[in-house]
Amino acid sequence: MARRLRGVAAAPGIAIAPLVHFHGGMEYIPTRAVAPEEVEREVGRLREAIDHAAGGIHKLRAEMTTVLSDRDAMIFDAQLALLNDRTFQAAMERVVRDQLVNCEVALQRVIAEYEKAFEAMQDAAMRERAADVRDVGRQVLGALMERERKVYTAGGQDYIFAADEFLPSDTGILDRRHIRGIVTARGGKYSHGAILARSLGIPAVVAVEDVLIKVQSGTQVALDGDNGVVVAEPGEEELVRYRQLVAERQDVERKVREARFQPAATSDGVSVELLVNVESVRDLGQIELDAVAGIGLFRTEFAFMERRTFPTEEEQRAMYKNALEAARGKPVTFRTLDVGGEKVLSYFRMPEERNPQLGWRGIRIGLDWPDLFYTQIRAILRAAGEHHVRILLPMVSGYDEVRRCREAVDQILEDLHAAGQRPRGKVELGAMVEIPAFVHVMDQVLPLVDFFSVGTNDLVQYSLAVDRDNPRVAGLYDPFQPAILRILRQIANAAAAGGKPVAVCGEIAGDHHFTPLLLGLGYRQLSMAPVFVPRVKLAVRGFSLGECREMADAALAMTSAAAIRGLLRERVRAASAAMLAGSLPGPGRERMSEGRP
Fold this sequence. Notes:
Number of strands: 16
Structural class: alpha/beta
CATH topology of the largest domain: TIM Barrel
Number of helices: 23
Helix content: 40-55%
Radius of gyration: 26 Å
Largest sheet: 8 strands, mixed
Shape: globular
CATH architecture of the largest domain: Alpha-Beta Barrel
CATH class of the largest domain: Alpha Beta
């Protein structure tokens, strides 16, 4: 008899396969007393195990670089930083020496202390580090017990991974040819495991309470990563429905691949610029530049986070020059250093803050430490040459901040001109719209900037007063809320009134369900992770501008996020069905309108 279990949708997609239990924690810990004369030998065992575990993480990181972005691969860097932390190592050695216990027990006790400390933190990103601590402990324990984790092949059969939680090191044991889904008893949508599942394209449902008890290993399940549902022992009728969804998704993916080099224009010929978000020059080497209009967001802070000291002006200039050359003449939008909150530099002491997301971050740091800001701006402008360069200011809240930045950029341009180094290409200055108060002063800021970019992740979080990484309130984080749509329209209208372009560069830019709504609200530039470009392009091509405006008007009149989401899903699903039936025209041709309003 079919049983439906609910959890949190963590990675999209449908999977049908037998569920297989995985147990990877610190279940068995050998315990023994250590004689005083054995202490140094035991400490030596611990150090060797740490070195062995670090080597394993380095190897896994190298293996995953072909399938993960630089940003996602930094999850493994965080684990290495913990392993190499002398305070962490000294804590375990101290337990061995003071309590005269074997290092497996010392490891367990210190891991428990670190877990407790991280889980008590107010910052959601830091709370998430508890999972990294558990994962590191598991890997060191495996080294101590000489227990190697091998890739699970499932005898060449498809399977669904089931465990208490999906940890970063689990990526090393997956048979990616046969794994079809992931289900866990704990975790959240923004946990490191969920992030990796999305990057790997594996459907996942997390926080399914007691799943390992309620569903035995080997049971056939249907996993719905779109809606957060796991159906154990589905009936034939339900299996047919899920198999049809899988087949439809595969057909859509084929159409998506076919569309990736086609023009990004609505069915009535209105052009839309699709841009990409990147974190490094290496990311640019993996992008099909012919399929996009440019780089809508280059997150410069990640180059700072990879280092042990601040990069010099010359080092930054070389990096920005490489990025501009890799973009092959397409515009590159460099966001100035945006650290603070969950993004920290190991060599830059940040103040202790009760709520870092509302604290000292973004342009606030740049204006308080002008040497950092001036050095970065000079490096970008010196690298510009004949390229089209756009400089984007993060976390601005008002006119005065933008004015001070505008004056600084103009002064540096004047100095470079005097030195014969002024850029010959187009240079633009823009401001991110992510603080709600800034929306209401855009009219004052218009003369100071050349463009705007909407950071919807923070804008939604601040507008709804919701920490999306806090499991108690994460369900309230919803960009489909009517209030958010009204704010987005206000932003688009303000930019249009001043004749300035405005892009969306948050997560909703890559959500193809949101695409027609954003076009209807007035946006013509969308910047997203490269993986989402083909599907968003297909969504752009699937509607006329008139249909997009009609959808936007209908959504703005609704009173609930559920109603808005339902409207968009219905319309996008209908467009997909028309596409699969071969009735979806390209730009500039009239649509066949069977059953479509």
